[in-house]
Specification:
The chain has 340 residues and is α/β, with parallel strands linked by helices. It contains 13 helices and 11 strands. A 6-stranded mixed sheet has the order 3-2-1-4-6-5, with helices on both faces. A hairpin with a 2-residue loop joins strand 5 and strand 6. Helix 6 crosses helix 9 and helix 10 packs across helix 12. The chain starts with a helix and ends in an 8-residue tail after the last strand.
């Protein structure tokens, strides 16, 4: 085995753990999302190792969410509790109760998980919820969003830190491979559970995961895809800054809820900034958002095709977009009439 290949699969060192969690040092408390699987158990072990090396640092609270979908979930929660106790970390198990949807169960379970984690975080005085997303997860997310035709923001995939449920969602392991986490657990002698749903081909992520070895053989490995996501994230941030500047200079807010944009200034903006500016207006003022990118692109094509003195009026995602001789106006659309 080559030196580089060996390093790519090596257990994480104490110094690496310190670097991964350093940005959370001044937080009052951190909630760790720990399911019992290898990635999240490694997250808990590494966080505990990092916290033990600090004279003062955040309180750690491990939280396991039992979605009530698998019989083995209760056993996995007990496994997490035993390990958390051994590491000196408090632990809580929270349950997703109530009726479950007949379709879209993974998305619903994910939303419930973050909602429950945020609830514990607020009760614990935590500023962040940390998850164990890895570079492999990031790569799969990029591929899935490519297949759906996502735009730049979507292809930037998961950020290292992002707002959610009124808190910050942190992903300290987003550039670490699953292989290194498995090696870390093996070296530490930490037991973990295996979720059978992670091998169920009914789920798109599982199918993409099965394709990863073939893609990696062609050079499209997790490291390359993660690097792509990072570069696209930088580009997305730059475009958002340009959109902020365009908003400040061109958008006039009129009561009660109307945005008016000078047509001449709007026409001089780069196409992507024009797209984002209108999308932001539709999302803020419409009541059926968020707007779909493909529909927004069709609207922009219509706006670009309108003659210099032409007028255009379209409804999109619960907002009305009107193009007049001098201004582009966006305002909420009237509520749809309910059919008796």
């Amino acid at each position: 085995m080559s030196r580089s290949a060996s390093a790519a699969d090596a257990a994480l060192s104490a110094a690496e753990a310190r670097a991964l969690f350093a940005r959370y040092r001044k937080c009052p408390a951190l909630v760790l999302a720990v399911s019992g699987g290898p990635d999240s158990m490694a997250l808990m072990w590494l966080a505990a190792r990092w916290r033990a090396g600090l004279k003062r640092g955040p309180k750690l609270v491990a939280v396991t969410v039992d979605h009530g979908l698998r019989a083995e979930a209760a056993c996995e929660a007990r496994l997490v509790k035993r390990q958390a106790t051994a590491l000196g970390i408090s632990h809580r198990t929270v349950k997703w109760t109530g009726p479950k949807p007949a379709s879209g169960i993974q998305a619903a379970a994910r939303a419930a998980r973050y909602r429950l984690l945020a609830r514990v975080a607020r009760a614990s005085g935590a500023s962040h919820v940390l998850t164990a997303h890895t570079s492999d997860d990031q790569a799969e997310t990029v591929l899935m969003r490519m297949a759906r035709g996502s735009g730049l923001a979507g292809l930037a995939a998961m950020a290292a830190d992002s707002p959610r449920e009124g808190l910050m969602l942190g992903r300290p392991l987003i550039e670490v491979s699953k292989a290194r986490l498995m090696a870390t657990l093996e070296k530490a002698g930490i037991a973990c559970a295996q979720d059978s749903s992670n091998r169920d081909p009914r789920y798109a992520r599982v199918r993409w995961r099965a394709l990863m070895p073939q893609l990696a053989a062609e050079g499209l490995d997790a490291r390359t895809l993660t690097r792509l996501a990072s570069r696209l994230s930088r580009a997305d941030a730059a475009l958002e800054a340009a959109t902020d500047a365009a908003f400040d200079s061109l958008v006039q807010r009129l009561p009660p809820s109307r945005w008016r944009i000078a047509r001449d200034g709007f026409a001089r903006l780069p196409q992507e900034v024009r797209l984002r500016l209108v999308g932001r207006a539709v999302d803020r003022l419409g009541h059926e958002g968020p707007v779909e990118l493909a529909k927004l692109e069709r609207l922009m094509a219509a706006l670009d095709a309108a003659p210099g003195v032409g007028r255009l009026k379209r409804t999109l995602a619960g907002a009305v977009v009107s193009l007049g001789a001098d201004h582009l106006t966006v305002e909420p659309a009237p509520a749809r009439r309910k059919i008796p």
